[in-house]
Amino acid sequence: MKATRIGLLPAPGSSTNRFSMIHAFDMAEALVALAKPGNEKAIIEIDDRKPSGYTLGDVAKALASDDGKTPTVIPVPFAALGFIGFINGLFAKLIRRPAMLTLSTARYLCHNDWTVRASRRPQLPDWSPQFDLKAGLEDTIDWYRKNGLL
Questions:
Q1: pLDDT per residue over 76-122, tens digit each?
Q2: What span, in angstroms and rounded, lies between the C-alpha atoms of 146 and 23?
Q3: What tens digit of pLDDT does each residue of 118-139 get?
Q4: Handedness of CA 101, 107, 112, 118 (dihedral sign)
Q5: Rounded-to-integer distance, Cα 57 and Cα 72, Å
Q6: What's the CA gap between 37 and 40, in Å, rounded?
Q7: For the residues of 36-105, what is the DSSP string, one character each?
Q8: pTM of the predicted model, to two decimals?
């Protein structure tokens, strides 16, 4: 999020990678709805019900400033991210500290499809997400700001 201050939005792997999203409030409400009898054995994937998920281009549009300026999505290829993760992982072992980015996390970040499978999306008659992408990002950024993280 901090990179968006200078107008950039790094895209691990490719700018066409897709992913599902859900606001924490919506997830909590969905979990409450799932706690009702009949869902004990369900294998599900929960999101905001956006078919085919989002790209970072969608996120950039949702993060557009009041003057309409959107962050530029900059793809970071796996070769670059993986190399940095590999070196970072070695360094972390040397100093005996955990690493945020390793070769393994680079693979995870660069995966091209983290979307919910429609067949695993739960049908919950008494639940629907309240936050779309833009509202969810605005609420999340507001929370980060209020807590001194941005």
A1: 999 999 999 999 999 999 999 999 999 999 999 999 999 999 889 88
A2: 17
A3: 889 888 888 999 999 999 999 9
A4: negative
A5: 8
A6: 7
A7: STT-TT---------TT-B-HHHHHHHT--TT---PEEEEE-HHHHHHHHHHHHHHHHHHT---SS-HHH
A8: 0.81
